[in-house]
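Q: Mind making up any chain with structure tokens?
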Amino acid sequence: MVLRGTQSESTSTTDQRLLDSRGPTDWVHTDPWRVLRIQAEFVEGFGALAGLPRAVTVFGSARTKPDNPEYSKAMEIGGALAKEGFAVITGGGPGIMEAANRGAKEAGGLSVGLGIELPFEQGINRYVDLGINFRYFFARKTMFVKYSQAFVCLPGGFGTLDELFEALTLVQTKKVTKFPVVLFGSEYWGGLVDWIEKSVAGAGNIGLPDMALLHVTDDVDDMIRVVHDAHAAWVAAH
């Protein structure tokens, strides 16, 4: 930068401001400093996850209780993925996320949780072997996509829908390839898929081939098949 006129009236140097411990601490919350915090989150995430084996991310509601059948199904999914040699990544929270982590851990697999700083979140659940807490959603989302071979979405709320549609956008625009998105639970997801086909595709806002990006199932073995097929295609392409 070049600063002239009234923009260059500062009487102190950068070194002086660095070494002076007095004064307000508001500077740590300014945008230039946030850039370094964002950079640090990416560096920490890449460093911690670089050695991760092939993995699948499981999304779903944080509000699902252990006595809900969907919790048991998420445990089954986590265990099945672990037995097939996939690490299981979740958002690290309670509910469906906890169940998938628990299923993976109890099956002897690697259980990963990528948490987010929220005012109402309980932190990383106790079934996570490798956990990272993020401040920024976009840094966390990058880790989900970069280190997963597939997304499996169980019933969830806005957070699950956010991840679902971001993944679909990345696949549709060829930012990622060979990346299946599985919607587990036809009763829950069926209405959404019908609406996308009739309203969104029907209005010409997506192409009918884009509907193939969504795979709806109620069967764990079918989900495993889709994940394996996508991983084999990814290996062949590399």
Summary: The chain has eight helices and seven strands. The mean pLDDT is 89. The first strand starts at residue 55 and ends at 59. The first helix runs from residue 14 to 19.
